[in-house]
Amino acid sequence: MPDPGERRRGSVRLRAVRFEEHVERAIASLPDDLRAAIRNVEITVEEEHPDDPDLFGLYEGVPLPERGDWAGELPDRIRIFRLPLVESFPDPAELEEEIRITVLHEVAHYFGLDEDRLDDLGFS
Fold first, then answer.
1. Fold held by 4-67+74-121
2. How far apart (Å, rounded) are the C-alpha atoms in residues 108 and 111?
């Protein structure tokens, strides 16, 4: 008979895989030219931000319009935080939509959009 704890760990892993698939679909939903313009960016899913556990996502880097010659530089990073999203949006459809909004919000920072412009576009 399977260990009940193993079943729970498997279920958590399955949910994490589904979460990552939602992130991948959000990136895939971008128009081809925008998706092709995303270069040298690492997109990761983490449990939560250590200093701000309510944060859904974070862009770390230099926005594309502000770059010069970045040959050899470390990649920018987009971090999506699973736990606050899952806890804030228990409905699967709402969760998927909020993951999409969060990913697109952080990608928009990469392209140089600030918080005010994202508010105007409904991505805050």
1. Zincin-like (3.30.2010)
2. 5
Average pLDDT of the residues in 29-55: 93
Instruction: Check residue 11 and give its pLDDT.
Output: 44
User: Torsions phi, psi of 63, nearest 5?
Assistant: -55, 145
**Assign residue 61 a region: left if phi > 0, alpha if psi is -120 to 50, beta otherwise?**
left
**Domain regions of the chain by residue span:** 4-67+74-121
- The neighbour count for residue 85, using CB atoms within 10 Å, is 23
> What token pair was written down for 90?
């228990």
The arithmetic mean of pLDDT across residues 15-44, rounded, is: 89
Tokens of 123: 């991505």
pLDDT for the residue 71: 61
Mean pLDDT of 37-49: 93
